């Protein structure tokens, strides 16, 4: 008979064993806020402090949003925790952000001691049902011995399903001594590069036949292109097909490429919206486009979808042809099997449209403004940004403005709350960026409404000496919503907010800051931001801007009838207009200082496009 000598068997607190599982998966920091129901893990964080850094945020929502941003920026699992009761409920916004953007995140949630469960104990409630919808894995730990195993399983499931894994931990379990044995299943196999599906020659040839038959094809590319942006440019040039980007793909195709028309819909370029509106073949490559019902339903066109997940076919538009393939692999095969197309008047017109649009943006960016407008701020950001800078962009007008004015390349990392669009994601994203990329320059770009939701965590930047450049565009208005209300039959409601002196607030937290009110003050302010952050300290610029509306190019409507292209302004634009007032396209452009902008019919005529 054999057995284990229990007198000599080495033991370890279950909470420490659990944290060592996190470490084995490469987690080196975790966001959270302590509570009584999480004290066993807090003790373990002290034991493991040389290997796993605890980042004390001031709100669990910030911790969860930062963990989601970590995962989006690095591809590695992000980790956050909250205690029982309100600590748990506060996590949900950040966890839903991770779910919607397919980011692997581990949420550790406190629970009252098992000996007090089901006694209506202080802060006790049944937490599992609350996390069911947001998670791909959701478990209450049942024994101390299973705690590290359940966490290991949770991480594996989060990676497999690219989502949120929740582990709820009765507090007393973490103190219990359990056998000190290897609990992690992490191995080099987990880091293999898995080849995606590959298109057949026949599929590529059918695709090329559809392109040849089209008069006005356009590529709508998403982040599925990954590192294949240069190959896509090669295809675009060879087949004379302009490229429209989804928001999350910004930077993957160089902004400098003449055939890159930018984004469509609201956070858009004029050229992208116009060309999408007249296309007769839309080629969606690795794209998840949540606004498809607005853009894909304006007119009839042939639709080709390339995706490495066949479950996505037809999600946004009925299919004329679907190709189950890795995006970049497909592009490479198309380039290899295709013949160069003759110069296309349609492609030339699309390029001219984008050049005209870019000249308009450049004029706004370079003109002086007092009071300050938002465009010159981006000129300064682009001036001081390192080639590999990390950007966290909060929700609101800054999404539109960053898509239009911020220069990004594949060397940059950047993060937004994309599909969930949670205001207040800017500071958490910057925390994640600076912790995961400590040697890179990091920017937080946020409006005053979004920043107000999380500004308490400016102190977290100060506490951990995170040299983040915080740029707050402050206009005492929820301007993204204000613009929506412009086009609704209503008076403004609930969108004006009380102005705050964010520079003084920052200084009270020990963060150096400055307020700017005109474009001439910007260069010195950004130079100071560089000086302070290079010395290893955070800095805040409170940019007091106007609440002007950026040109809403989504209001342009194009119609082809009897071989003629016409462009007009949506009837819903400016709902407060006097009865009978109509906007010409020229009137619309002039309202936004766009007298230099040309209509698409003009550009088609200049470039000889035949409909």
Automatic annotation (TrEMBL):
Q: Annotated Gene Ontology MF terms?
A: magnesium ion binding; pyruvate oxidase activity; thiamine pyrophosphate binding
Where does the record place the Thiamine pyrophosphate enzyme TPP-binding domain? 394-542
CDD domains attached here? Answer: TPP_POX, TPP_PYR_POX
The top EC class is oxidoreductase
* Listed name of the protein: Pyruvate oxidase
Organism, scientific name: Latilactobacillus sakei subsp. sakei (strain 23K) (Lactobacillus sakei subsp. sakei)
* This enzyme's EC code(s): 1.2.3.3
> Which residue numbers delimit the Thiamine pyrophosphate enzyme central domain?
205-333
Q: Does the keyword Oxidoreductase apply?
A: yes
Q: What are the UniProt keywords, alphabetically? A: Oxidoreductase, Pyruvate, Thiamine pyrophosphate
Domain (Thiamine pyrophosphate enzyme N-terminal TPP-binding): residue spans on this chain? 17-127
Its domain of life?
A: Bacteria
- Record-stated family: Belongs to the TPP enzyme family.
For the keyword NADP, the answer is no
